[in-house]
Each structure stands twice: as structure tokens, then as C-alpha cells.
């Protein structure tokens, strides 16, 4: 059986990422990124809790890309979001970006809050 290409329909996958940037639908986003099937926006990190709380009722799973390495979420964040019905999974940003695309291709209600990898990124 030949492998099949993932189908995203109208949903927005992450096309690529590197030091300091993410590429979504051909557009380069510098810095942190909050993405779900319907769109991608700049995200200023864990100080921007309102954006994460606003995902309640829209997604079932939030993947948190913690940068180059996995680390702990800010204290209480996971419990806060899970109380709103959003499961949270912290992981390194590269793994979170790949996992987001896989779950998105399966039609899952998923979002990713991604801290960028260290570095400057590509020129505009």
C-alpha cells in the first residue's frame, strides 16, 4: 500500500519552522505562534494567557511548544486550561509542530502554542 499525503482541507498546517520563525500558508511569522485550523496569530508567550483561555470550546487539545527543549508549563496553567476543557501537552517546539500537523490531518480539534527556537530566522 502506497503512503498517502495528509489531507488538511481548509485547515492551516505548519509548513516549516526554524530559528525565530514559523511558516504557515506561505507566510512567515516571527516569534511565538498560536495556531489552530482556522488561523495563526502572533503569540507573546505564557504571559498571554487570555489567548490560551479563549481556546476553550474550540479545541480539545493544546500542544505547547516550549522551545528547543521540553520544560514545565507555568505553574497552574495546565490545571487552569483543563478546568476549561482543554487538555494540555507540553513538548519541544519541533515535536509540537509535527504533532500538530498529524492531528490536524486527522481532523482533530487541536491548537498549538509555540515558542520559537533560538536564533534570528530568515530575512523577509
Polypeptide structure, described:
The protein has 124 residues and is an alpha/beta fold. It contains three helices and eight strands. The strands form two sheets. A five-stranded mixed beta sheet has the order 5-4-8-6-7, with helices on both faces. Strands 1-2-3 form a three-stranded antiparallel beta sheet, covered by helices on one side. A hairpin with a 2-residue loop joins strand 2 (21-24) and strand 3. The mean pLDDT is 91.
Task: Please render the helix and strand layout as text.
Elements: E1 14-18, E2 21-24, E3 27-30, E4 33-36, E5 39-42, H1 49-53, E6 61-65, H2 77-83, E7 87-91, H3 93-105, E8 110-114
Parallel strand pairs: 6-7, 6-8
Antiparallel strand pairs: 1-2, 2-3, 4-5, 4-8
The fraction of residues assigned to DSSP E strands is 25-35%
What's the tally of helices?
A: 3
Largest sheet: 5 strands, mixed
Shape: globular
What is the N-to-C succession of helices and strands? Answer: EEEEEHEHEHE
* Overall pLDDT level: 91
Q: How many strands in all?
A: 8
Strand order of the largest sheet: 5-4-8-6-7
Taking Cα atoms only, what radius of gyration do you get, to the nearest Å? 14 Å
Global structural class: alpha/beta
Low-confidence stretches: none
**Distance between termini?**
41 Å
> Helical percent range?
10-25%
Features of the shown structure:
124 residues; alpha/beta; 3 helices
Task: Summarize this entry quickly.
This protein is an alpha/beta fold.
